[in-house]
Design brief:
Chain lengths: 103, 985
């Protein structure tokens, strides 16, 4: 079903996903427009952080699936800001996948 | 228009025989993994779970091709691998895609793969297996054509049974299973695994563990697992790959750093090797390796640039632009690229370096040919996979295409929808409407997508691909859907049949009505409304709406019209309006023939025959069943599973005239066929078999058959009528088996007979009578009451029932009622009335030869018949028929009726069951004569046999007739059997 387009960041939850290695910020569009930044951990290792609004759990699942498709190692997933109209946890599962808008 | 199966999905990807770089072979042989695959064959499931680019598909194709190679045993050619597979199983391969989330499509591909559709012709000695494999799924494809709820478990059960008959070990490979997210497909696979025949093994290759009970399989030792850590290249494999396959001559240290940087990830190693080839040529190989292994940049970002940037501009564009396609063919690529890119390709100039496309590697067709580029990409091993062996269809490696798409999205976002649009147009022009729809949706051209969907929606529903349809509709903006009544009608249908909440279907139907301001689809909308009413058990409303729909539907709306006509017929039948039912079925036959809808024609003819049978026109019924069986063939003249429905009907019909052998043949044949079709039709087959077994005295067999019917009826839980039908038949059998408690429990539960006057709708005025199913239930209760010696209650049911059914013209029920009345009246001591009722039953049943009804009543009926004839209560044809029935008590199968009656006699017919004894017993000589008469000998032959004169025999016979109180040889034999003087031969 079509839902009215929300203003990103206003009432959507913000997620931060950390992956191992250094990912080019050209991947931002591929990952739902999340902001990409990386920081060196030591001489040979760095960690990339992707941060941004994620509409719902299927969307998050889609983002993670894309990371796994590229064989990226996911280190952590955090919700750093809750959305405004959070649905109780058990109601929102199993709503089905999202179409990849550019595939 | 049907969607042909894409054979490319069943094609085992080839093992690369060699590459443009001229090495021995393009593949690292992974004996350790092949060995583990072979060792896992006794398990149910092998799970290969690892991210993209770990060589899952390659490993499996190596395994399959090694098996095929060793089996073919080509002379001269070296063995393709250094190991052999023992024993060699037969492989069935399916490359899954998003579309397989539709269970109908998933099953269609699995069946086609098992049939060996994707396999090239086998060698000598393989023929019997090939044949038995091609028989797999026979009839099941017709099941998939049902526009109703897909009977997944029935299809799988039939398939599993068929696989069980194949001697060869069979391996089903499901590649890319991570693309499956539909629970019903997971359920189907779980069911298959749960009931897997011992000679079958399933292999799943996936990027994510599937939601199956893996822990349970693991605990039972039924799971063979290969995971990322197993699949990654070991140091040795890295060395073999880099130095031998890719010809790089790297040092041990260099190999170690590359293995560490890539962590044995094959896709990354492959791209790294291609880059290193280029740098080796330009002399800065060591620098590249150092820079690459020293970087922490995402490995594929690093490498894709290396690989892409080394290609000529034209090839780069080709790769980026065709990345929107899931499958590539030359004409399709040409169409997607358009004129400008072809020109760019033509002017591209490059040097012939390794890992690069060069003019030299292209055929003389030149740059402007997509075919040349595709073949060059394949030779350069540029992450392209052939999908057939004709160099027609390809796909990119999944990981590679993701990288290309990301770059296209990044560099030319405006192009994405243009390219999808071109792909959609090409697919549409070439008759691949579904692919055209997918690309239209991806292009965001929703109007065009909706146009395309409307074009194929009817065919899609007829193929049961309702999930596909629902997916399309969900992908469209709902505001657009609401403006299209045709889409809305079919979507409402799909919502209903796929078990979505009724409200969703109703809402969608309201959308349809609102959008249809011209009223052009009023008939179709009415059909779905009728269906909704039927789901809500509002039968009358449903029938009313269906009739209105028939008035409104255009003549050429064959799908809806034939559905409604058949549906209406059944409803009329159950509401007791036989003439209307007949008319509706005839209309369904006519429409079905016009639409070429064989299934509807066969079902409607079969229902017509049922009706004729109920109306007592046995010959007409038989002819109609035969017409239905004749009609139930496909274009090639092969009998379809739906033929099982009229075959079962015919079996039950001839059982009525006690043709037991014919009944058995039809019922067994029909049930076998109809089970493949999976419809509730098999219920009728099992019920018929139960009655047949009972007639043959095989009580355990009858119980087993009725249990099978019960189980089946239980599974069709959307329908209640079938459960009631089976329960009533079971109760009838209980009475015949002397299990009166069992029958009484049914009657108490049914709660029908408390009102003695019967709550039977009047026949006056509206031409309606008692619904067929109710009549049968009342008859069963009456039969039970007779057996319980509650004769008054039995007669109170039977008399009004007989009058009602007579007005309705349902003669088979009239006969049954009269027969039971005769038995009840006789027991009450009303001998004259009893024989009168019996005489009428005989007159009605005689012309069409319904004898089973009488035979089922056992000993007492034999006595009554004998009395009726002996006392001259029946004469002429009725008397002949009585004689015929008495003779049929002698038929081997029928003796059980008497035997059963004797065994259960205390329950069944207390008091009168003891065979009457003769006042004056027969002499030994008379018994001798009687036995020879029973063998069919003439008096003269008997005289010769016993060395007596003819006149002496006549005297013996005369005396014997007197003692038996009979007047003919036939009567004497029948009477003697009733009296137990003659064995039942």
């Amino acid at each position: 079903m079509n839902q009215p387009q929300r203003e990103p960041g206003l009432d959507q939850a913000i997620y931060r996903i950390r992956v191992r290695g250094q990912l080019d910020d050209t991947w931002s569009q591929w990952f739902n427009g999340m902001t990409i930044a990386y920081e060196p951990v030591d001489n040979s290792t760095s960690i990339t952080t992707l941060t941004g609004p994620v509409a719902d759990q299927p969307k998050l699942r889609g983002i993670l699936a894309r990371m796994w498709d590229l064989n990226l190692t996911v280190l952590s997933v955090e919700r750093i800001a809750p959305g405004q109209d959070q649905i109780p946890f058990d109601v929102q599962s199993q709503t089905g996948g999202e179409l990849w808008e550019n595939s | 228009m049907g969607t042909p199966l894409l054979k490319t999905k069943l094609y085992v990807p080839p093992v690369r025989a060699g590459s443009s770089t001229g090495h021995r072979t393009g593949l690292v042989q992974r004996a350790r993994l092949i060995a583990r695959l072979n060792e896992g064959l006794p398990c149910k499931l092998t799970l290969i779970s690892a991210p993209a680019g770990f060589g899952k598909t390659t490993l499996l194709s190596e395994w399959v091709n090694a098996g095929v190679g060793s089996r073919a045993g080509r002379e001269g050619a070296p063995p393709p691998t250094s190991y052999s597979l023992l024993p060699t199983p037969t492989f069935a391969w399916v490359s899954l895609d998003e579309g397989d989330n539709d269970p109908a499509r998933f099953l269609a591909y699995v069946i086609a793969a098992l049939q060996g559709t994707g396999v090239e012709q086998g060698t000598e000695g393989q023929h019997s297996t090939e044949r038995s494999r091609q028989m797999l799924g026979k009839g099941l494809s017709d099941l998939l054509q049902s526009p109703q709820r897909l009977p997944i478990e029935e299809i799988l059960t039939a398939l599993i049974n068929q696989i069980g008959t194949i001697a060869e070990d069979l391996v089903l490979i499901l590649d890319d299973y991570h693309l499956i997210h539909a629970q019903r497909v997971h359920d189907a696979l779980a069911f298959l695994l749960e009931h897997l025949p011992p000679q079958m093994h399933v292999v799943i290759s996936t990027r994510a563990d599937p939601p199956l009970s893996l822990a349970r399989l693991r605990a039972r030792g039924q799971l063979n697992e290969l995971r990322q850590k197993d699949l990654r290249f070991t140091a040795d494999e890295c060395a073999e790959f880099l130095n031998q396959m890719m010809g790089l001559d790297l040092s041990v240290e260099e190999i170690a750093t590359l293995a560490s940087r890539t962590e044995g990830w094959i896709a990354a190693l492959h791209m790294a090797a291609m880059s290193i080839q280029v740098h080796k040529h330009s002399g800065d190989m060591a620098d590249f390796i150092q820079a690459f292994t020293g970087s922490d940049r995402y490995i594929l970002d690093y490498l894709i640039e290396e690989v892409l940037h080394r290609q000529p501009a034209g090839i780069q564009t080709f790769l980026l632009h065709t990345a929107v396609l899931t499958r590539l063919s030359a004409p399709l690529c040409d169409a997607v690229l358009g004129q400008d890119v072809a020109a760019a390709l033509a002017t591209a100039g490059v040097s012939p370096e390794r890992g690069q496309i060069s003019p030299a590697s292209l055929s003389d067709r030149g740059w402007d040919s997509g075919q040349a580029v595709l073949e060059a990409l394949e030779r350069a091993n540029l992450f392209i996979v052939p999908l057939d062996n004709k160099r027609r269809w390809y796909r990119y490696h999944h990981l590679f295409v993701d990288l290309l798409r990301q770059r296209l999205q990044q560099g030319h976002p405006e192009l994405v929808s243009i390219l999808h649009g071109r792909a959609s147009a090409w697919y549409e022009a070439n008759g691949y409407t579904e692919e055209a729809i997918e690309h239209a949706l991806a292009a965001g051209d929703v109007e065009w997508a909706a146009d395309l969907i409307e074009r194929v929606i009817e065919a899609t529903v007829m193929r049961s691909e309702l999930s596909t349809l629902r997916g399309w509709v969900e992908a469209l903006p709902q505001d657009l859907v609401r403006t299209r009544p045709w889409l809305c009608v079919f979507d409402a249908w799909a919502l209903l049949v796929t078990g979505c909440p009724l409200e969703a279907a109703q809402a969608r139907l309201q959308d349809a009505a609102r959008a249809d301001d011209q009223g052009a689809f009023a008939g179709e909308i009415m059909v779905v409304r009728a269906l909704i009413a039927a789901y809500q058990r509002e039968t009358e409303t449903s029938v009313e709406l269906s009739s209105q729909a028939l008035e409104l539907l255009p003549e050429d709306s064959t799908f809806f019209r034939s559905f409604v006509a058949g549906y209406l017929g059944l409803n009329y039948l159950y509401s007791g309006d036989a003439p209307a039912a007949r008319q509706a079925f005839e209309e369904a036959v006519r429409l079905g023939r016009k639409a070429g809808n064989v299934m509807n024609v066969v079902l409607a003819l079969s229902h017509l025959a049922d009706l004729s049978g109920i109306e007592g026109r046995l010959r007409e019924a038989r002819a109609t069943y035969e017409r239905a069986i004749e009609a139930a063939v496909n274009g090639q003249g092969k009998r379809l599973p739906v033929a099982g429905v009229p075959l079962c009907g015919l079996g039950r019909l001839v059982l009525l005239s006690n043709q037991l052998e014919d009944a058995r043949r039809y019922l067994v044949q029909g049930t076998e066929l109809v089970v493949k079709w999976g419809e509730a039709g098999a219920i009728g087959g099992y019920v018929g078999q139960a009655h047949l077994k009972q007639a043959l005295g095989d009580t355990p067999g009858a119980r087993a058959a009725i249990a099978a019917a019960e189980e089946l009826a239980d599974r069709f839980d959307a329908m209640r009528a079938d459960d009631e039908y089976v329960a009533a038949n079971k109760a009838t059998l209980c009475v015949l088996q002397g299990d009166l408690d069992g029958a009484a429990r049914w009657a108490d539960g049914r709660d029908l007979d408390h009102e003695v006057h019967l709550d039977i709708p009047s026949v006056a005025g509206d031409g309606r009578s008692v619904p067929v199913n109710l009549v049968y239930e009342y008859l069963t209760i009456a039969r039970l009451r007779v057996a319980q010696e509650r004769y008054g209650e039995a007669l109170a049911i039977l008399r009004p029932l007989r009058r009602e059914t007579k007005v309705a013209g349902w003669m088979i029920f009239v006969i049954r009622a009269l027969v039971l009345e005769a038995v009840a009246l006789d027991a009450q001591g009303h001998a004259h009335q009893a024989l009168d009722a019996l005489g009428r039953a005989l007159s009605l049943a005689g012309p069409e030869g319904y004898s089973r009804v009488f035979l089922d009543q056992g000993v007492r009926m034999a006595q009554l018949l004998y009395q009726a004839v002996a006392q001259g209560m029946v004469r002429g044809p009725a008397a002949d028929f009585a004689g015929q029935i008495l003779a049929e008590f002698e038929v081997p199968g029928s003796r059980s009726a008497l035997a059963t009656a004797r065994i259960s006699g205390d329950n069944l017919e207390p008091g009168t069951l003891e065979p009457p004894t003769l006042i004056e017993p027969l002499s030994e000589r008379e018994l001798e004569v009687l036995a020879l008469i029973a063998q069919g000998l003439t008096n003269r032959e008997i005289a010769q046999r016993l060395h007596l004169s003819l006149s002496t025999i006549k005297v013996h016979a005369y005396n014997m007739y007197g003692k038996l109180d009979v007047h003919s040889r036939t009567q004497a034999v029948a009477r003697a059997r009733v009296l137990g003087l003659l064995p039942f031969t």
